[in-house]
Amino acid sequence: MSKDATEKLTARGSARSHRPTGSKFVKYIGSNWAPDTSKLPSQDKVAPFAKARRAAVAKAFPGKVLVIPSGGEITRSNDTGYRFRAHSAFAHLTGWGSATVPDSVLVIDARGKTAKSVLYFRETAGKNTDEFFANSAIGEFWVGSRPGLKHVAALLGLPTKSLAKFDMDLKAIDSKLVLTMEKSTALVEFVSELRLIKDSYEIKEMQKSIDASVLGFEAVVKKLKAASKHPRGERIVEGAFFAQARLEGNDLGYETIAAAGNHACTLHWITNNGPVKPGELLLLDAGVEVDSLYTADITRTLPINGKFNKIQKEIYLAVLEAADAVFAMAKPGVTYSEMHKTAMKVIAQKTAAWGFYKGGYEESLKPENQWHRRWMIHGTGHHLGLDVHDCAQARREMYHDKVLEPGMIFTIEPGLYFHKDDLSVPKEFRGIGVRIEDDVLVTKNGVKNLSAALPRKPKEIEAWMKKLRS
Predict the structure, then answer these.
(1) Is the pLDDT assigned to residue 5 strictly greater than 90?
(2) Which of 2-6, 204-208, 209-213, 247-251 has the lowest mean pLDDT?
(3) Burial class of residue 199 in the structure, from the number of CB atoms within 10 Å of its CB (0-12 exposed, 13-18 middle, 19+ buried)
(4) Would you say 213 and 451 are in contact if contact means Cβ atoms under 8 Å apart?
(5) What would the mean pLDDT of 166-194 be, rounded to a whole number?
(6) How far is Cα 121 from Cα 105, in angstroms, rounded to an integer?
(7) Are 372 and 364 in contact (CB under 8 A)?
(8) From the CA atom positions of the chain, what is the Rg in Å?
């Protein structure tokens, strides 16, 4: 295909548009607008925390210029895009959450005695430009106005510049001194590990996201009756939580797992197109992302008709015992890996007691055997924060092998999953999946369950569901 033909095809993306053109129209549409009389915002509470985080990055890379982009919009199909969400490192170091303008860039200059930071972004063009009405990607008439440089500087306590100046400013710096997220593994690891311990602002935002998620779980319970009457009832469950996420926060922290019946045995079931049948269980794994971009990650396994039967309760209590064992031992000084081993011991004991394999649980716990892992192949938890699997680029010695410290927030989430075609377990176990997941904060003496507002014990769950559905 010729270059001319390619260009013609590219232009067709906007063929449906009939936008007015011409200098006279630009002058006309740019006139007779009320002046902007809004005052500059007060500095956000996050500003001093973000400043301290930037200082930590600068201290780790003296003499360097660090470039941390927000990322840009991602195309979903043709000229439609996904909802923009800034990169977590950018959000952490600027404090700019859901209001972040796409393609923004944070630059931390650590060459001098005192590090300097600048936030570059595309500010709103004036109403006297054709961008105002003609550019459907960024024009104010199409997507709303972007904030001004002074506005964001006041909000974040951070110097700002037009994105148009970024390339020129970067070219003026010796390229050997510039570290980018794209090319520097050390920078990526550091900004990820910087989030391992949350500051007081982050802890409050995490609790806010968890509280909002509790409301989402309540909304789901209220919709279970309707869900049970639809062939794709899982979609009703998913929709109920999503509606609450948009009301209370920015979005979902991740795609909701609304897994009923045997679907609960698929760990990341997000298709959510199955029925919700009374007498079966619903595994709901969901979290609300608030406007600061912090997210919860909670799982509850609920009896769809409001009552656990005998075998469901037995499996549920086994998982609960594994979770409680981790709660009892988790504290500063314990390694992350030791928590997983604690949960696995209980899972091995339970599956051995049920007679699912020969040799006893101690034999199963040996690295060369691991028979019990057939029914729980995932880990017992992960760090949580701006990402649902937060700090994922941290080095192993800073994650799995690191001892717990006050300020860490992570999940505790053991489970048991018995697929409907698993012939190694009795028939009554098949098609049942149970996971219990809570979000916890490490304190000086142990851990605090931040998601304790959602009941965990069978009787409490049944009473909670009955109250919500009455």
Answers:
(1) no
(2) 2-6
(3) middle
(4) yes
(5) 97
(6) 7
(7) yes
(8) 26
* pLDDT tens-place string over residues 34-75: 988 889 999 999 999 999 999 999 999 999 999 999 999 999
Mean pLDDT in residue range 14-33: 82
Give the model confidence (pLDDT) of 85-117 as tens digits.
Answer: 999 999 999 999 999 999 999 999 999 999 999
Closest CA to 432 of 233, 272, 228, 283: 283
Mean pLDDT of the chain: 95
CB 259 within 8 A of CB 282: yes
Give all domains of the chain, ordered by start, each with its CATH number: 39-193 (3.40.350.10), 200-469 (3.90.230.10)
Q: Please choose, from the candidates 207, 343, 290, 47, the residue with its C-alpha nearest in 3D space to the C-alpha of residue 351.
A: 343
**Residue in the block written with tokens 């939580």:** 241
CA 123-84-103 angle, to 5 degrees, is 40
User: Which candidate, 64, 144, 132, places its Cα nearest to that of 102?
Assistant: 144
Query: Tell me: the pLDDT tens digits for 331-358?
Result: 999 999 999 999 999 999 999 999 999 9
CB 191, CB 149: distance < 8 Å: no
CB atoms within 10 A of CB 108: 22
Amino acid 402: pLDDT: 92
Residue 267 · residue 218 · CB < 8 Å: no
Evaluate if pTM is beyond 0.90.
yes
Q: What SS3 string covers the chain?
A: CCHHHHHHHHHHHHCCCCCCCCHHHHHHHCCCCCCCCCCCCCCCCCHHHHHHHHHHHHHHCCCCEEEEECCCCCEEECCEECCCCCCHHHHHHHCCCCCCCCCCEEEEECCCCCCEEEEEECCCCCCCCCHHHHCCCCCHHHHCCCCCHHHHHHHHCCCEEEHHHHHHHHHCCCHHHEEECCCCHHHHHHHHHCCCCCCHHHHHHHHHHHHHHHHHHHHHHHHHHHHCCCCCHHHHHHHHHHHHHHHHCCEECCCCEEEEHHHHHCCCCCCCCCCCCCCCEEEEEECEECCCCCECCEEEEEECCCCCCHHHHHHHHHHHHHHHHHHHHCCCCCEHHHHHHHHHHHHHHHHHHCCCCCCHHHHHCCCCCCHHHHHCCCCCCCECCCCCCCCCCCCHHHCCCCECCCCCEEEECCEEEECCCCCCCCHHHCCEEEECEEEEEECCCCEEECCCCCCCCHHHHHHHHHHHHC
pLDDT of residue 86: 98
For residue 184, name the pLDDT band (cuts at 50, 70, 90): very high
